[in-house]
Amino acid sequence: MPLFGSLCLVLALVASAWALVSSSLGALTRSRSLIASGERSSLAVTAVLGVASAALCALFLKDRFDVEYVASYSSRAMPELFKVAAFWGGHAGSLLLWVLVLSVFSAIVIVQNRHQNRGLIPYVVATLSGITVFFLVLLNFTSNPFDLLGFTPADGKGLNPQLQTPLMAIHPPCLYLGYVGVSVPYAFAMAALLSGRVGDVWIRTTRRWTLFAWLFLGVGLLLGGYWAYIELGWGGYWAWDPVENAALMPWLTATAFLHSVMIQEKKRMLKVWNMSLIILTFILSIFGTFLTRSGVISSVHAFAKSGVGTVLAIFLGAVITFSVTVLVWRLPRLQSEGRLDSFVSRESSFLFNNLLLVGICFTVFWGTIFPVVSEAVRGVKITVGPPFFNTVNFPLAMALLALTGICPLIAWRRASAVHLMRVFLYPASVAMLAFVLLLILGVRELSPLVAFTLCAFVLATMFYEFYRGSRARQRSTGESFLSALGKLIGKNRRRYGGYTVHVGVVFILIGVVGSSFFRQEATFSLRRGQTVQAGRYTITFKDTTSSSDAHMDRFEAILGLSRDGRDVGLLHPGRNFYKSFNQPSTEVDIHSTLREDLYLILIDFDAQSGLATFKYYLNPLVNWIWIGWIVLFIGTHLAVWPDSRERALLAQARLIEERTFA
Amino acid sequence: MLRSAIRVGLILAVLVSAAAAAASTQEALDEVTGKLICDCGCSNLTIKACTCGKADRVRAEVQARLDSGQTPVQIVNAYVDEYGEQILAAPTTKGFNLVGWLAPFAALLLAATFLVLALRRWARVPWHEPPLAPTGPGGPQALDPSFLKRVQDEVEDVER
Question: Distances from the Cα of A237 to the Cαs of A214, B36, B106, B149, in angstroms?
């Protein structure tokens, strides 16, 4: 089977190389047979990679430790779910997953566009095949997951214990759906530039793909944060690790893109900027892969000694050179057709939103690479950790939050002073009220005071927008308020889906600010029956339990928890000892409420004295981060849902383009 | 009575000052450990946040140094002398490191200036939208007001 897997990879490389050549020649010569051949080859790549991936899964499930990759990331005692997740636990498997997802997306694009966008598709297939070829070259020549050891060990090394959680099964695939999803709008952008069809079609066609990639990058970040929170035992969810930053950067530029395309759609402006943003987003997604695998910057996520850093750097350079060259070549066709009516308009507020999003992205990029810059310039190694990112990004994030509230209130085209006064009155009053309330509640530190006040302002803006729209509809149609609200959202899904996403973002920020500025923590030691006070909670150390199986030894402490004198349950923080990895792992337990999390870690237990040492974190409002992501998820689905108006606009754009190029 | 009150007062004063000292020691410990990065490989965490054994040892070391009378600045400098600047969780605000701190703001300021200039230029140019209807000798006033109202409503509907 390993040989079969390797053969599949070779076959996929040959087929994707042909898809690249055939689609490129087909695009240049307009030969239908070459274009069709390219598309068929691309579909064949998907099928072959599907078979190769199934083969790798089977090798993991059958404990084939004669395969080096299986021996490195799996063991007999591992549950089957984690054996499947071990597929992407290492460098070679994650590359295979990457290229599999890319080939599936290519197939979807081909099937979706059988009868439309025919002028763009050969270029799209060529671009996607080019990316596929590169990753298949890596798989075939540097990182083949089917390589044999030459002997068969009795057992495998196993997956890192910290990765043995169900979240691990979905966190990397979600991130990859996002990273790879970015390739589709990038391929359409390149197709638009290469074919000269730089109108609205590529943007309108790829809107859902961009939202899809953006959503999954976000979900990947959320799952990574949640995994860190419940698994790593330091009570936090974000550490500005270089690879976390690498996933955040394309998410930020994609967010900027999702806003700025609206100006292109409405005003036919910012064509160069939108092209640049999607190119940048794709480059940053490749940069993330480079960071994880190059070893240039140390990270908790780094794949040790993968040895493909140089090749990835060359590919990154080639992508940048190719994209910028094509963009510069087509600059004359990318002139703005419209103009702004006024400096004070929603369009200009969107541009400032873009400025801040790209500014935050630059800050994250700069902080991530500054250790390398410093070493090159001064020869001194330095660290750029959380204090840098928190300090520099906080004012930018607050400015962006303020704009999130201001943008929807400013009219498109031109806003008059009277109009601004009228629409700002209610949200600004709510913000003032929130400010006073926070002072009364004892919040004195400037940063959380500003952050919470702005959160109140944005929430007020969003609810005001929903209310204003529903009331306007109610007046004109005579419907009930709820019916008017439902129909308002149904008929303007993109707009109100976007607002819902903004509400989700505010919830996330409330959670981040609450858990960052008001966190309490303490380390304490107890004997059985002793208690300790943690905020409004009383913790009583009751007992310990232990168990053992072929996979691991478990040790748990049992603690009673009461709040304001009432029992609220038991907590079971513990430590697992994974036998195949010879490594202990902290298992935290969390009592969650909307107000706060009591996060408990067992640090040590001395069996002789019976003294157990624990650490608790009281993380206020932290659950609003996860709730915010759920709201964001719902909002994105609202925005991405098919819309007859969007379909009509896309059909119109296609008609104009076909007439232009007929 | 007075003697008892003084005794209670003294005990309270000792307790309050002990609590204040403990709080200030904790603050100093947090200050120092919040500035040092843990290189255990777990994540990009400060010694204050990290829960690994190495972070535990460094926290104990810092506590011992504080107990021996060293100031937080002295302790941080001692670690930098021993391990180099890499031990600091964030770059210092001196020399070339200032570039690290200021570059994001400088870039943003530059981009904002460029954007404001571009917006001024774009907004000055009149809107090149084709007229809604041919303008006759009577100008737009000659249009049917109900037609203009309908256009206005539809524009608002689209822009909502």
Answer: 20, 19, 30, 54
Cα(A165)–Cα(A223) distance, rounded to whole angstroms?
A: 12
Which CATH architecture does the domain made up of B2-87 adopt? Orthogonal Bundle (1.10)
Residues of B in contact with A410 (CB under 8 A): none
Is the ipTM above a cut-off of 0.95? no
**Rounded Cα–Cα distance for residues A509 and A451 (Å):** 8
Q: Is A343 on the interface with B (CB under 8 A)?
A: yes
Put simply, whether A387 touches B (Cβ < 8 Å) is: yes
Contact B93, B101 (CB under 8 A): yes
Residue A558, beta-bridge partner list: A543
Please report where in the chains the tokens 């002990």 appear, as a residue: B18
**Residues 6 or more apart in contact with residue A476 via CB below 8 angstroms:** none
Q: What are the per-10-residue average pLDDT scores of chain A (662 residues)?
A: 90 96 93 94 96 94 92 86 88 92 96 89 95 94 90 84 79 90 95 90 90 93 90 87 89 94 84 93 90 64 63 92 95 79 78 94 94 89 90 94 89 71 88 95 93 96 91 87 90 90 96 93 90 92 89 89 90 84 80 94 88 92 95 92 78 77 68
With 0-12 / 13-18 / 19 or more C-beta atoms within 10 angstroms meaning exposed / middle / buried, residue A32 is exposed
The alpha-carbon gap from B127 to the nearest alpha carbon of chain A, in Å, equals 6
In this structure, what are the phi and psi dihedrals at residue A524, rounded to the nearest 5 degrees? -145, 155
Contacts of A416 (CB under 8 A, 6+ apart): none
Report helix angle A242-267 to A271-294, nearest 10: 170
Domain extent listing, chain B: 2-87, 92-126
Q: A307-310: long-range contacts at Cβ-Cβ below 8 A with a sequence spacing of 24 or more?
A: A307/A142, A308/A91, A308/A138, A308/A142, A308/A143
Q: Do A269 and B46 touch (CB under 8 A)?
A: no
Closest residue in A to B102 (Cα–Cα) = A392
Judge: A469–B160 Cβ closer than 8 Å, yes or no. Answer: yes
Pairing type for strands A537-548 and A583-587 reads unpaired
* Element of type H or E holding A212: helix A201-231
> pTM here?
0.88
For residues B65 and B138, what is the distance between their CA atoms, to the nearest angstrom?
A: 89
Q: Quick one: residue A196, left, alpha or beta (phi over 0 = left, psi -120 to 50 = alpha)?
A: left
